[in-house]
Amino acid sequence: MLPQASSPAGSPAGSHAVPRATVALGCVSGLLLAVSAYLAGALPGGDPGPGLRLGGFGAVPGSFLLGLACWLAGLAGWTVAWWRLGRTDRGGSARRVLTIGAAWAAPLLVAPPLGSRDAYAYACQGWLWRAGLDPYAMGVADGGCPWTASVPELWWHTPTPYGPVAVLLTGAATALGGLLGALAGLRLLTLAALALLALALPPLARACGVPVPAAYWLALLTPLTAVHALSAVHNDTLVAALSTTALALALSHRPRSHDDLARTVAPLPDSGVSSPQSTQDRRRGRGGAWWGAVGAGVAVAGAVGVKVTAVVAVPFVLVLLGRRWWAGAAAGVVAFVGVSAAGGLGLGWVAALRGTGELVQWSSPPTAVGMAVGYVFRLVGRGEWVDEAVTGSRALGLVALAGVGVWGLVCAWRRRGDVGAVVRACGWVMAATALLGPVFYPWYAVAPLAVLAAAETDPRRRRWVAAGAVVCAVLTLPNGLGVPVLTKAVGAFAVTGALIVAAVRSRPRARA
């Protein structure tokens, strides 16, 4: 399923059945992850291993070490089962893939968050809004959120960088009462986003030439999705669902297939005129296309209203809309203005974005290069240049991102008649936006992963995307402590070295 994404959707009936051992391994792995959430996860009462960062493994209780062992075993087992499913269930049904994924993930629905404490920050931000306060002007501690102790202290005085759609939805989630009720509401919201993603993927994948089970496998069953979407309930799941929905709706004006088109315009037997029914069908099709354009505009505006980085998907949606781009653009503007007015908070979230780049971690490749250069400066006695090295490297990363964005748009425009090419360009530009920014957290990969799962047909690139999803899943420990925080120098030089090797290997070779 993973490597064979470019194979036709209708695989031969002799495809391999999913071994029971693979399904059982995934179920056990999901249970182990749920156990790790209770022992070493992002618990509401606080960090179960607060001494790990400074004191190492000897400074944490035995229960945390047991939970960490369950975390490692669960992630390893999930990854093996998931990879085997992708290789053995070629030609399997989409429903079977979803059923297996649901069985694996079921224990996570009743467990605390894993890999991040952001869920508590979301709950507090929603509480501030419901209390009549402005989460764009104050941190959760400043507004007196009763659950502030569950939020990482780093974010106590930081305004929310998320858009009005995120604030409204998290505010609604807190209406269930109490912190546990808010967490339940956020998890229901995430389940709704995953359900929307499951609905949007099939038409988009078919249009791009990717079998639906393969798209489901790569978008919904990865360990990254299990940990950072379903368990940690990150807002990026909403971005993934709404962006993918916008791309799918933008295709509504295109004929489904040559056979369907032929049936639509087929003339009556022995006559030179079209049937009244076919004319009526064409009118309905045109009406549906206009509504599809409006829906695409509203969906992509919703994605931007959750997280500003989703704006990079907007031009690709407009390219897919063709002549109806103005309807999508107008609907998106109206929807965004409307939801901003409903929230009553204006555009204060734009100013709050400045606080997101304060952390310096090697998980962002440009930041990793700047960190490595900074360590070299320290070795030669130029420690005062360290900050400038990081700032300069990040600036170069943004320049590179602009170049990738222009390249993606040019490719999409030149091949605007090829749905797969446009959507693939969108997915890779979204991936570049996540990786080349000043800060990268593993959940930033959820949205580009969903788009590429539906559009990328090259087996080699799909393998790299799948491997990247696994790496992202292990970049944090179950209690939310990031691995980059524990391995600053090692990680910075490792990422920088990997970038140098990749640049050398990708260099065109001179012909003899």
TrEMBL record:
Q: What is an example of a Pfam family matching this protein?
A: MptA_B_family
Output the InterPro entries linked to this UniProt entry.
MptA/B-like
Q: Which UniProt keywords apply?
A: Glycosyltransferase, Membrane, Transferase, Transmembrane, Transmembrane helix
Gene Ontology cellular component? membrane
Q: Where are the transmembrane segments?
A: 21-43, 63-85, 97-115, 162-181, 188-205, 225-251, 290-319, 325-350, 362-381, 393-413, 425-444, 485-504
NCBIfam families (UniProt xref) = MptB
Give the UniProt family note: Belongs to the MptA/B family.
Name listed for the protein in its UniProt record: Membrane protein
**Organism classification, top ranks?**
Bacteria, Bacillati, Actinomycetota, Actinomycetes, Micromonosporales
